């Protein structure tokens, strides 16, 4: 009987921790020969889960509950990217590589000519 209770306890304990998955991936710099982009910010939209890439451009979002999410990739001076419909189950997932490109800035000539 003690063994049965012990095994059931292990199953309940294990299932409590098996509910969270990880989302992993990497970010590259589209402006510099697709080199790894360190310190880019990756977040889950409408949540407080945020992580930065490491020096090799890799990231891991830990303790992600099952569901469908939108990830936002950002870096100062670069166009942000949103990837929608990322479905997370009870296992960890590895996403494709994301390439960020710099923002395009245009200037308008607002100087009035004097006549």
Key descriptive features of the protein:
115 residues, Immunoglobulin-like, mainly beta, 9 strands, five-stranded mixed beta sheet, single chain
Topology readout:
Blueprint: H1 2-17, E1 21-29, E2 35-36, E3 41-44, E4 50-52, E5 58-64, E6 67-74, E7 81-88, E8 93-94, E9 98-100
Parallel strand pairs: 1-8, 1-9
Antiparallel strand pairs: 1-2, 1-5, 3-4, 3-6, 6-7
N/C terminus separation: 100 Å
Rg over CA atoms, rounded to whole Å, is 22 Å
Residues in helices, as a percent range: 10-25%
CATH C-level class: Mainly Beta
Which second-level CATH architecture applies? Sandwich
Low-confidence residue ranges: none
Task: Tell me, briefly, the overall form.
Answer: elongated
The fraction of residues in strands falls at 35-45%
Structure notes:
- With 115 residues, this protein is mostly beta strands.
- The protein has a single domain (18-100), classed as Immunoglobulins (Immunoglobulin-like, Sandwich), CATH 2.60.40.
- It is built from 1 helix and 9 strands; from the N terminus they run H-E-E-E-E-E-E-E-E-E.
- It has one helix at 2-17; strands at 21-29, 35-36, 41-44, 50-52, 58-64, 67-74, 81-88, 93-94, 98-100.
- The strands form 2 sheets. Strands 1, 2, 5, 8 and 9 form a 5-stranded mixed β-sheet that branches. A 4-stranded antiparallel β-sheet has the order 4-3-6-7, with no helix packed on it.
- A hairpin with a 6-residue loop joins strand 6 and strand 7 (81-88).
- It is elongated and about 60 Å long.
